[in-house]
Write a structure and sequence with these properties.
single chain; 102 residues; mainly alpha
Length: 102
């Protein structure tokens, strides 16, 4: 979990963790060990989500992910693995919706 937090925090804050010339290089780096996020980590993270919170830009909320069970966990796992492999996140992940009540 901590590994995800550090990795995605750097991406979401616009941190450049590699030089421009290597970012666009799609060849695997033989010095880097392949790091993968396990489905177990995704299931655990979904289980820890708090209910009753507003959904994000995409409309997905904690209740939907929890109710989706293994199918939702597998889908989310594929999305996260793709973002991890490409080193990029979906633009919507960088947005927030602020709601005020009166």
């Amino acid at each position: 979990m901590e590994r995800w937090k550090e990795y995605f925090s750097g991406l979401l804050q616009g941190g450049q963790q590699e030089e421009e010339s290597t970012r666009n290089d799609t060849r695997p780096d033989p010095t880097q060990k392949e790091v993968s996020i396990g489905i177990e980590e995704v299931v655990e993270a979904i289980g820890k989500l708090k209910g009753g919170k507003a959904p994000g830009i995409c409309g997905n909320d904690a209740e939907m992910l929890k109710a989706g069970g293994p199918v939702a966990a597998e889908w989310l796992h594929r999305v996260i693995e793709l973002a991890w492999a490409k080193g990029k996140v979906v633009e919507d992940w960088k947005k927030a919706v602020n709601c005020t009540t009166t």
